[in-house]
Structure formats: structure tokens, C-alpha cells
Amino acid sequence: MTRVSRDFGGTMQKDAVPAVSADVVFASSRFPNYRLGANSQILEAKDDPKVLSMKEVVARETAMLLEQQKRLSVRDLASKFEKGLAAAAKLSEEARLREAASLEKHVLLKKLRDALESLRGRVAGRNKDDVEEAIAMVEALAVQLTQREGELTQEKAEVKKLANFLKQASEDAKKLVDEERAFARAEIESARAAVQRVEEALQEHERMSRASGKQDLEELMREVQEARRIKMLHQPSKVKDMERELQALRIQLAEKSKRSILLQKELARSKRAEQNISQSYELDGSEALGSYLWINPCSDNAPELSKCSIQWYRVSSEGGKKELISGATKSVYAPEPFDVGRVLQVEIIADGQQVTLTTTGAIDPAAGLGSYVEALVRKHDVEFNVVVTQMNGVDHESESIHVLHVGKMRMKLCRGKTTVAKEYYSTLMQLCGVRGGGNAATQALYWQVNKGLSFVLAFESERERNAAIMLARRFAFDCNIMLAGPDDRSPLGT
User: Fold this and answer.
1) What are the record keywords, sorted (predicted)?
2) Percent of the chain residues topping a pLDDT of 70
3) For residue 92, what are the CA distances in angstroms to 57, 105, 269, 326?
4) Are 339 and 438 in a shared domain?
5) Measured in Å, how far apart are the chain's first and last C-alpha atoms?
6) Are the C-beta atoms of 291 and 401 separated by less than 8 Å?
7) Main-chain phi, psi angles of 288, to 5 degrees
């Protein structure tokens, strides 16, 4: 009987251990650094003790935000949001790299165990015991790797908590900015009142000086100069600077919201990948008023959307009541003001199977739209430039500019001096955003004047379209009329 030596290279063929597949990509060119502890327990050595874990980074950033969540200026608040946004991006990148490293470790351990299993059948004696001991160590490493994945899942939950905290901080910042702006307006009104009082006092002084001629003008002149100085401090230029800062802050908040949604979608994909759940479609697009959502096939085997039955719903965030959105049967949907604060859901029926997709959260309002509508409410009649794209469900060829008048008692559509349609608010009137029609739907609305006349109007911007809907519903509500979209019996032009 031939004795097998401990040098495997001299007695085994080169194909005894199967080679690792060329498709496998490793994060590093060396095997992970492990060492044996007490009771032969396998311990993983840390490469760089200075690198903080994801949990420590989340705790540190949260503590810093809590310490500084007080009354901040607009510039300080903007700087803080930039740091929070960078931290969220860093955490997302770290989670992605850890997931890739975890997958590489699983592949490496499986290849190593298969190689040792193949080797165990080719050796005997003490060598076989060594191989079995190595297999046991590989299995212990696999158990430890599974435990680390559990820790990674917990760290993902911490990342989600941080995203929610940033969202709450953004809402607090919006309230703070509104308070500062109101304070500035109060200062301006106070300065105007002071100037008016001084002017009235000057007029009274002139009348008294004509009678007596002994009134001293120096004190009044000093008051006038002081009043003018106060007025100059609150000129519109300073308000414009604040508006520019607010606009920059709104852009940062929008970017933060997009990053948060992408992070939540990435976490959902990772969870589905861990549970081996495949999905044929996914919902893409910005979940905010002024944008649009669309159904995106994420599998080559997914049926064509043109052959599927599609229906959109809005779900209340409190009671979870599902409300059908009549006419929303396309693969694209543009949220309207009714959808703000609610979760959108779409059901896809293909080949007898139903797929339900839901937004990651409630639809966010458009930045500055509320204050813009409040300013328009003070006017008796508001005009919007529009183009008629459909009339009574038939495409309108002319692209001439029309003017839509939204008044406190009625709505009117004019072309030059010609009135195309005019109607007082009533229960027969319907008004909502166009449901379908691609990305152009964000700038279009559907207006049913009465049972025999309807239009699809295209506005200059998404903000004008949403403002017109909100303004008309506000004026109609003041007349005890509730304007809504079409019911199930009334077809909607798309």
C-alpha cells in the first residue's frame, strides 16, 4: 500500500481541485485575514481600526444633528443639509460595497468547500483528518458570514432611520424659513408705518408753521432720516436675497428627497435579492407634485405593457383606504394636487396574474406652490396662458394661445376677444389633471365645462397647471361646490 504524504502537490493531478470560475470577481486579491481564538474559534481580523462601522457613523451623525437642531440661519441650515446629504451618500455606498463583499465571500467559501470535498475523497489517513478539519473551519466561516449579514440588515434599518430623520429636519427647516420670512415682512410693514406716521407729522407741522412760524424742523428731519434708514434696510433687494437662498434650499431638499427615494428602492431591491424574490416591473420617477411616474419592466420575460390591464389608485396614509383614479389606465401617471400626502398604487394584470406596485412614500408637495396659490387667491380674476390640445375628446389642430380666466365665481376660456367657453362653478363642472399622455401630462389638465363640452388644456409649466387646479377648487369650495375629476360614467380624454 502506497503511503500518502502531506505534500499534496507530488501525488495529486492538477485537475483534482476544480478551478474557480472566471466569472467570479473578488474585491481583493488575497484571502480574508482570519485567526484562531480560544476554543479554536475563528476570528476575523480588522484591516484598519480607524475605519468606523456603519452603525457608528449613523450614531455620530444623528448625535450631531440633534445637538444643532435649534434656531439656525438659512445659510447654516443649508450647510448642515449638505453634510447630511454627503453622509447619506457615504452610507449608501458603504452598504453597497459590503453587499458585494458578502457575495464574494459566499462564492469563495462555496468554491473552497467544494475543493476540499473533492480532496477528501482522494486522500486517506491523517491527511483526510486534516481535510475534514479544514472543511469544518470553512463551515464555521460560513456561519460567521451569515451572522454578519444579519448585522448588515440591522445597519440598513439604521440608514432608513437616518433618512427619516433628515426628512423631518427638512420640514423643520421649511417652518423656520417661513418664520424668518414672516418676521422680515413684519419689519418692512413696521418701517412703512413709521414712514407714514412721519409724513403725517410733517404735514401737520407745515400747517402749524404757517400759523406760528416758530416750529423747529430739525427734530422732524432727524426722524425722517431715521425712518428712511429703516426703510432702506428692508428694501426688496434684501428680500430677493432671501428668496434666492430659499430657492437654493428648495433645490437641495429636492435632491435630498431623490437620494432618499433611491436609497429606499436600493434597500428594497437588496431585500428581494436576499429572499430570492423576482419582480417583473418596478415604479420609476420622482414621487412629488410636478413630476410623473411610469412603470418600468425590469425583466426580459415581462409581458408588454400595451397587452396588460393597468389601473392606478390613491391610498390614504392614515386609514389605508384605496380610492380608484378613474381614467388612469396608462403606464404613465402625473400626480395632481389631490394626490399630495397620499400613497399611489398601480395594479398590472398580465396573463391572468396581478402585479401591484406602490410608491415608497406619500407624494410630496411642490416647493413654494402653497404660498404662490395664497398670493393668487387675493386676486378677483387670475389669467393663465394655455393651448387647447383636445376638445370634446378630439385632437385640436390649432396651437394658438388661449387665456384661461379662473375667477371667484366662474371660469372662462378666451381666444383674443372671443369667448370660447364660460361657466359658473356647478356640480356638472369637473376639473383634474390629465391621466396619461406621457411626460406632457404634468402640464395639462382636463376641464369639463358641462355635459356637452370638455377641453384638455396645456399650460406653460407644471407650476401653472397645479396652481390653476388648486385655485379653481378653492374658489369653487367657497361657493359650496366640490370640483373633482370624472366619475366612472364619464370618459376622460387622454
Assistant:
1) Coiled coil
2) 66
3) 12, 20, 13, 38
4) no
5) 86
6) no
7) -150, 155
Which has the closest alpha carbon to 405: 361, 345, 443, 449?
449
* Exposure string over 191-211, b if 16+ CB within 10 A, otherwise e: beebbeebeeeeeeeeeeeee
Domain enclosing residue 321, as ranges: 287-358
CB neighbour list of residue 150: distance below 8 Å, 6 or more residues apart: none
Nearest by Cα to 173 from 233, 248, 63, 236? 248
pLDDT for residue 454 is more than 60: yes
Q: Which residue has the cell 400747517?
A: 207
Q: What is the DSSP string of 321-363?
A: -EEE-TT--SSEE---GGGBTSEEEEEEEETTEEEEEE-SSPB
Query: Do 318 and 406 belong to one domain?
Result: no
Bridge partners (DSSP) listed for residue 456: 390, 446
- Cβ contacts of residue 475 below 8 Å, gap of 6+? 406, 407, 408, 409, 425
Between the CA atoms of 328, 333, 336 and 342, what dihedral angle is there, to the nearest 10 degrees? 90
The residue that leads in pLDDT, 97 or 392, is 392
- With vertex at residue 79, the alpha carbon angle to CA 77 and CA 85, rounded to the nearest 5 degrees, is 100
Tell which of 302, 330, 358 closes a domain: 358
Regarding whether 354 and 456 lie in a shared domain, the answer is no
Q: Detail the DSSP E strand segments found in 37-167.
A: 42-44
Res 489: pLDDT: 40
Residue 391 bridge partners (DSSP): 394, 455
This prediction has a pTM of 0.47
Q: Which of 140-149, 167-176, 213-222 has the lowest mean pLDDT?
A: 213-222
Distance of alpha carbon 17 from alpha carbon 14, whole angstroms: 7
Which set of grid coordinates corresponds to residue 109? Answer: 467559501
Length of the chain: 494
Identify which of 328, 362, 366 has the alpha carbon closest to the alpha carbon of residue 343.
362
